[in-house]
């Protein structure tokens, strides 16, 4: 069985104004190579199209090569380049409000309600809170440039957008349900050795001394 690889096509970023409001946001975009084919997790903002295409070219791939696209949720900065992948099967949570508009639905689409296994070592887990249909992708025993070989990687989308949300154990400031956010962060931390957050660099999970809940918020 082929050991899955996780490639970071784009590191997520977040720019705030002085008043704290979000000025600009670009999501993390990942490629998973596995025995199930080529999987892209989130596609970025519309203006990320060239960066996504160039990152794939560096891996000797083109958008038409992608078999599956997983949208962790339907916000514009995570689904803005869905149109680049004409051959892909799209996967998202059934309860995500943007299904059928920002998230394509076709005969081959897969809309999940509970934990779902794409293939050996690759799972989708509902992690609601930021939105009611947020998903995280778990890649077990993965090879990656940031986590080395044999690490369990969780691509979290905005269920855990910033390292600060992990460090302080607080939900993103934009959320559908605060309590669900905290539960999902705890779930992600329990599953991961490395986390790819929605708008920050990948980080390693510490198994001891995980901080107590704070009152301030991250993204």
Automatic annotation (TrEMBL):
Q: Which InterPro entries match?
A: MBLAC1, Metallo-B-lactamas
- What sequence ranges are listed for the domain Metallo-beta-lactamase? 26-199
What is the top-level taxon of the source organism?
Answer: Bacteria
Pfam families, alphabetized: Lactamase_B (PF00753)
**Known partners and oligomeric status:** Homodimer.
- Please give the name of this protein: MBL fold metallo-hydrolase
Q: Which species is this record about?
A: Geomonas subterranea
Q: What is the lineage of its organism?
A: Bacteria, Pseudomonadati, Thermodesulfobacteriota, Desulfuromonadia, Geobacterales
């Amino acid at each position: 069985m082929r050991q899955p690889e996780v490639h970071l096509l784009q590191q997520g970023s977040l720019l705030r104004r002085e008043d704290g409001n979000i000025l600009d946001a670009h999501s993390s975009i990942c490629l998973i190579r596995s025995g199930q084919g080529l999987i892209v997790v989130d596609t970025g903002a519309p203006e990320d199209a060239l960066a996504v295409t160039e990152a794939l070219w560096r891996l000797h791939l083109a958008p038409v090569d992608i078999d599956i696209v997983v949208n962790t949720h339907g916000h514009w900065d995570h689904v803005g380049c869905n149109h680049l992948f004409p051959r892909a099967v799209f996967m998202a949570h059934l309860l995500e409000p943007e299904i059928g508009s920002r998230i394509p639905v076709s005969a081959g689409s897969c809309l999940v309600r509970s934990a779902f296994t794409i293939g050996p070592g690759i799972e989708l887990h509902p992690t609601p809170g930021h939105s009611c249909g947020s998903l995280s992708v778990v890649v077990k025993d993965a090879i990656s440039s940031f986590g080395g070989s044999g690490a369990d990687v969780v691509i979290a989308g905005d269920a855990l957008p910033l390292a600060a949300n992990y460090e302080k154990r607080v939900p993103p400031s934009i959320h559908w349900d605060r309590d669900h956010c905290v539960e999902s962060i705890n779930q992600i931390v329990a599953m991961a050795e490395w986390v790819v957050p929605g708008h920050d660099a990948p980080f390693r999970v510490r198994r001891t001394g995980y901080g107590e809940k704070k009152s301030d918020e991250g993204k």
